[in-house]
Amino acid sequence: MISLPFRIARQAKTLTPLRIAFGSQECGALPTVMTGAGASLPNLSFTFMKDGRLRAMAERDYEELRVAAFYRSAKSKALLAGSVIEAVVLDLLIAKGVAFDELKGLAAHALYERAKHEELLAGRQLSAAHATRDTRNFVHPAVEYREGDLTAEQADLALSLMRAILAELGFAPAP
Fold first, then answer.
1. Which helix (H) or strand (E) holds 8?
2. Domain assignment of residue 90, given as a range
């Protein structure tokens, strides 16, 4: 089932809160209650991505991430930030000539290690990618039950890491 903010975003794009979340010029700045890493996400172009399907996924997930950030949905932010990173890394690997069949069964950890092997991720980028992988595991109820709720700060960290990785790869402004 799709959560309420995403249904609203799809069905009623004219709602003021969503125009604010999407950075509409006519709405001005975000309210002062919206602070932190996810308060306002800039429009990003994913035209650097070569694979059209992966680009569409990254664009969709980033758009949903902007809505989740506006509504301060911690779990959604963490999951979607990791998804955007994974789509970008997968696209970079395929563009480098790695066959999709070699990548399709890899978990996030193995995908990032392959990107390191192909010299696409290194140092801080790799560490940040691994950190987002851990927060994405909260999609599983058993993980959340065992480890407790995902905090807003942890979700904001995943979001900041996504922005930092994209910036270090040269694809987005730094957070």
1. helix 4-11
2. 4-168
Burial class (CB in 10 A: 0-12, 13-18, 19+), 137: middle
Domain assignment present for 175: no
Q: In this predicted model, what pLDDT tens digit does every residue of 49-67 receive, in sequence order?
A: 999 999 999 999 999 999 9
Provide the domain count of the chain.
Answer: 1
Pair of tokens at residue 157 = 């960290």
Residue 174 lies in a domain: no
Domain-embedded: residue 109: yes
The answer to whether the CB of 23 falls within 8 A of the CB of 40 is: yes
Q: Is the pTM here over 0.85, yes or no? A: no
Burial 116-127 (b: 16+ CB within 10 A, else e): eeeebbeeebbe
Alpha helices, DSSP H only, in 47-73?
Answer: 52-70
